[in-house]
Amino acid sequence: MPALSHRVAERHLSEADPDMAALIRRVGRCRLTQDRERREPYDALVRAVVYQQLHGRAAAAILGRLEAAAGGLPSAEWLLEQDEGCLRGCGLSARKAETLQGLARARLDGTVPSRAQAARLDDEKLIARLISLKGVGRWTVEMLLMFTLGRPDVMPVDDFGVREGWRRIKGLDAQPKPRALLEESLPLAPWRSVATWYLWRASEEGRAVAANVLTG
């Protein structure tokens, strides 16, 4: 997502919502960055599965062992050639090993699209397609849309940090329900990915927070 788009997004968000305007003034320029390696969706999903529910260092160590065994990020073909013992030996749980092999099959049968194929699908079609895979939830696909594919209008309403950020900037007693947040955020379109980044920052204000490998 180029810097120019960030400036346009910041201006739109500020004009659409005075509370967002105040947040943007406090936080400063958006630092939401797109994957500069132009990673394939399959590769991004493999990394996301490895990192699910793990501390960043532990996940990085497991991914490192996988890459060492595979000679790089494991291809679909390599994953399907391995037995569970090999994958467990790299530090994966049985469930994650199964999920990764399911991803590998889905890449080979075309369910997981290439980057070029993904460019022809809108956000909701990609989400519906990928959450059909075991172990891949909507949030994971939304992160793929934002950080790998650079989609500008993603609002992950199930994300705790996003709902907490909204609660804080609006002075609410409780976090909004996902459906309510989706409706309330409509005026922020088509730049809700940038709004999401700012809401994460709002959720962290006043707290010491460890860097998140995904959300910046």
UniProtKB/TrEMBL annotation:
Domain HhH-GPD per the UniProt entry, residue ranges: 50-204
InterPro entries, per the entry: Alkylbase_DNA_Glycosylase/TA, Alkylbase_DNA_glycsylse_CS, DNA_glycosylase, HhH-GPD_domain
GO BP terms: base-excision repair, AP site formation; DNA alkylation repair
Domain of life: Bacteria
DNA repair listed as a keyword: yes
A GO cellular-component term linked to this record: protein-DNA complex
GO MF entry, a single one: DNA-7-methylguanine glycosylase activity
EC id: 3.2.2.21
SMART domains on file: ENDO3c
PROSITE patterns for the chain: ALKYLBASE_DNA_GLYCOS
Keyword vocabulary terms for this entry: DNA damage, DNA repair
Catalyzed reactions: Hydrolysis of alkylated DNA, releasing 3-methyladenine, 3-methylguanine, 7-methylguanine and 7-methyladenine
Keyword DNA damage tagged: yes
Family: Belongs to the alkylbase DNA glycosidase AlkA family.
Name of this protein: DNA-3-methyladenine glycosylase II
